[in-house]
Amino acid sequence: AQSVAQPEDQVNVAEGNPLTVKCTYSVSGNPYLFWYVQYPNRGLQFLLKYITGDNLVKGSYGFEAEFNKSQTSFHLKKPSALVSDSALYFCAVIPPEGGGADGLTFGKGTHLIIQP
Amino acid sequence: DGGITQSPKYLFRKEGQNVTLSCEQNLNHDAMYWYRQDPGQGLRLIYYSQIVNDFQKGDIAEGYSVSREKKESFPLTVTSAQKNPTAFYLCASSIAVGRSYEQYFGPGTRLTVT
Questions:
Q1: How far apart, in Å, are the Cα atoms of A69 and each of A29, A31, A84, A90, A102?
Q2: Given CB atoms, is B62 within the 8 Å cutoff of chain A?
Q3: Interfacial residues of A (vs B; Cβ cutoff 8 Å)
Q4: Contacts A41 to B, Cβ<8 Å
């Protein structure tokens, strides 16, 4: 069965500094990887995904993520953090077709706090 | 205005009662999903449906039931058999069955059972 690990419960970054939210995964075959963001008491919003191709994926709101197959990682990054980026971030994985249930497997989430 | 709607936003029930959570989408998406979110545990898949009149169990289906009689609707019933029903429930949809498609989430329903 697939799994996702987000090793940091919380990440604190000063506004204007680069940010990284870490994610590692375990899945058979070549996975599809996703990042979502959740604001308080709201649903999840899609940020970006890796399906195939270029290992650096660009997404919404200036976020990007780097797929590293050898390290089984998919870290979320942004060059310059904004206070409005403060939220709960989820990494998710799904195996390719035929690899089990169709739903996403989520990490436990990382609280990102951007300090003014 | 397209999207996924979930109602109600907050729901309170007494232990032993069944309760149904609504999920409607006007995105013309084929696939729909139900997830449960608990603090510090991320989201876990309850049920999913790829087409009308078909649905599959996810990782934590015990104590839950669903139906998919219409493409745009995927209600979730939390039965009295669910031992710990208090949680935040999220409905999602994706444009097609393929796993490369991102899922779009509704605003959620917070269920409290006392």
A1: 11, 10, 31, 19, 22
A2: no
A3: 4, 9, 32, 34, 36, 41-46, 49, 51, 90, 92, 94-97, 101-109
A4: 108, 110
B33 touches chain A (CB under 8 A): yes
CB A44 within 8 A of CB B107: no
Rounded to whole angstroms, how far apart are CA atoms B12 and B18?
11
Using CB atoms within 10 A of its CB, is residue A54 exposed (0-12), middle (13-18) or buried (19+)? exposed
Each residue's pLDDT tens digit, A40-58? 878 899 999 999 889 999 9
The reply to whether omega before B75 is within 30° of 0 (cis) is: no
Q: Which tens digits make up the pLDDT trace of B37-82?
A: 998 888 999 999 989 999 999 989 999 999 999 999 999 999 998 9
How many pairs of residues across A and B have Cβ atoms under 8 Å apart? 71
